[in-house]
Amino acid sequence: MESLQSWVSNNPAAGLLTTLQIFDREKQREYPITVTATDQATEPLIGICQINVVILDVNDNSPRFENTHYEYFLREDTAVGTSFLRVAAHDDDYGLNAAIMYSAAGGQMKYFQVNPTTGWVYVSQPISQKSFITEEIIATDGGNRSSKAEVRITVTSTINQPPRWERDSYEVVIPENTTRDTSIVTIKATSLLGDPRITYNLEEGLVPETNMPVRFYLTPNREDGSASILVAEPLDYETTKTFLLKIRAQNVAAAPLAAFTTIYVNVTDVNDNVPFFTSSIYEASVTEGAEIGTSVLQVSATDLDLGPNGKITYSLLPDRNGDYTFFRLDPTTGSIYTTSVFDREKKASYLLEVKSTDGSESARPGKYGQPNSDTAYVRIFISDVNDNKPVFTQSVYEVNVDEDRDVGSTVITVGANDEDEGANAKLRYQITAGNAGGVFDVKPETGVIFIAQPLDYEELQLYELHLLASDGKWEDYAIVIVNIVNKNDEAPVFGLNEYYGSVIEELDGLPVFVLQVAANDPDSSLDGGDVRYSLHGHGADDVFAIDENTGSIYSQKVLDREERALWRFVVLATDEGGEGLTGFADVVINVWDINDNAPMFTCMPSDCNGSVFENSPDNTLVMEMTAVDLDDSNVGLNAILTYHLIEDVKNELGEDLFEINPATGNIYVVGGMLDREKAEKYFLTVEAKDGGGLAGTGTATIWVADVNDHIPSFTQDIWHAIIPETSAVDSEVLEVVAADGDSGENADLTFSIIGGDPEQKFYIESHKGDQRASIRLKKNLDYEQPHERRYNLTIKVEDLDFYSVAFCLIDVEDYNDHSPVFSSQFVQLSPFFENTPVGTTVATVTAVDEDSGSNGNIRYSIKLDSDPAGEFAVDQDGHVTVAKILDREVIQEYSLIILATDQGLPARTGSVTILIDLLDVNDNGPGFEALYMPVVWENTPGPQLVYMTPTSNLLWVFDPDTADNGPPFMFSVPPDYQHTLDFSVTDNGNNTATVTALRSFDREKQKVFYLPIIITDSGSPSVSSTNTLTITIGDENDNSHEAGHKEIFVYTHRGW
Fold it and tell me: How many whole angstroms separate alpha carbon 944 and alpha carbon 938?
């Protein structure tokens, strides 16, 4: 499989194509694949198939608007229904996934609507709005993916108009190979104002069709006020066929206005793409002898150009070997056919070079009028037919083999040759006759003859094997002669499998004869009669030795039975003077005992210990005092032992306390009572004597073990402790001590709490190996619970048999562990008026503290950052009052945090938040919404409206009070205003007013007029305020220059 190896993989057995990565249809929509099918022959045949994989679309792209934002300057008198701006979005998906619908972001716009399918924005309501209107339009595709774009609309008056384009749109057609910096169109707009200057801008787009990435740029032409559009980067018809360029023209004014035009650029195709083959090398096979016209394979090329530029013609290129003459190529389909019958034995493969050519003159540099082309190689293999007989390299083979060769050993390798190849030349070998007893076999694939059964010269000395070689159709025969060579294969044999001998220990007069062995060689009639003996095993070199000629075995050292009583060896007999085969037998030698060892106590010198409880009765076993004798216990009396006490221990009456059994060495109690409190250990000297009169002694240490006969008791009857209620769990409260006269486990004491703690607030921890215990806290204490302020514990100490009790008084101290708590964390007060008098109580709060004494004494305060101006106060009874005059226009609502702090150390604090909303009182007069600075130009006849801003003649009003105390407003001029013939004020009835200049003015007579305007709100009672509007008379150049003079004084200063 070629040309898609990095994207898909092929299951070789099943032919199943599987993907290797995630595809992106927007990057590549189709993938041409060449799939090769190969059979399993040694020289396989090949078939080729062309597959075109089409990538289906999923909705993985959101719509993209052509521009980052849209802007339009719209006349205020534009008629309802007029379409003035088209927004457009692109979606890289396909079909329904790319079907785009347009809508307003908020559901609808105030003055405009957008056509859901075309994207045209049109006027839907008469426009009565300030200068700038900003809306958002959403583009949604068929899969519900969306994006937004901002639309900025500037509403212009009928007088102040934006520039006017010579044409509403421009259309340009250019070839895709247009060079950089080539001008494609000149555009021009004209300003309708006094200043003719125009600035041009090529609007930034978001998609390739709107110049992203940049393919065009704009250059202004200062000579005639026009602008040119030029090519910035190379174009590619196969990537982007059309462009929609949006150009902005803006005039030069205090409030500049702009107009837009659109340039439609159509790119035409040129022949700039090469018809590339889908693979650089193709492979196929054809059977020798196949008839002329047999189809071999089909090659394929692709060209991204269209029409004649992309029409592909295929051809075969001549080669120096003339391989192209044996095939023909269909120029339209790319199919290759045979024009000859092939013989593999003459030529096994052919290499063709194919060429693809498109249908018109190339636009690529260096082609000089020639079309685009590509080349590829096609390798064609001629598959074999079985038409040759195998032939052995020799007709007769001969080989000598020793009779002792191992089974599986190779005897000889035979071979045959076959001029065919692959499966037709694969040979199999077989033995057809002469293999008596099946002692030989042959590996059928390699011709290796090997030994299958053991050989024996005495049975058969020569084999004549008949061998067959076959390729499945043809056969050949050969003979293999095998001569068997005789070998010495019989080892010497001993008369016995195992020999026994004995020797007495401590004998001198070395060497000492022990025994003699003998072996016979079955091959003695041949060359194997010269036998040599050798002895093997521990001690065979230095303790014992053997005569290699006679087989006599001797002891070379004085032996000690207690070191080793039995010796075992292996004796070997080797023929051919010690160089041939070997036989073996076992030799066992016993060492006889003499009484040469005295008894010894194994526990000496420090481990002869025994123990017995005090007060034990007579015949109580104390310990076993055992000795050992290294002599042989199975022969005579050398190891038979008798025990007795050399030194015994006596009581106050002179009686022996212990006795020993003479036969076993067991020691028993015999007289009186043992008392550990008088003596805790005794020493006895014991003697052991063997039957030969040799003796040994040892000292036995007897320990008197304790009996539990003492009652444990506390060192105090009453214990006392004081702990704070905040003590941590597991902390120690008190350590108690007891005493017991016993020892060991009888003095191991256990402590426990048996009373006075029904809620199990405490536990007691015994100290191992020490007659002490710690009382520890098991659960937290709470002094605020009356029953947890004092405890009277009953504690118990006990050993294995006895116990006693004591009492422990524990007093709990209070700790400031509770914060003051209000009944609620938040209190929402009913709203009250901002003019509430100082000192008025607005709320009462109460906190409680479960601690006692100073830990529960509470003081109230207000958290500073919740009332930084100190407009409220709280007394120690929790009364919250107004402390300063309130003003809703400064602060409308409060989150007042009242703190309750106790007097503990450290102190603890609780809080409550009081939410306060102030009601409005009509205590503010209305005023101008902005600092208006209107200008009335001199010499302009009246009446004329006075513009408050460059775009509006409306005077807007602001009242800091609430709506109930605000609009509607009434406008008037004071009755005593002296310039009533100069200006008038008109109440528009919609909370705005307009000012009219009633006459023409002369700035040289009066530059500024101050117009007082009385504005009254609708509060109860209503409030009026007088606001002064400063009107400046604008200057015109209506006065000539007059002669004048100026005096200039020049001073110089000189220093010394």
Answer: 12
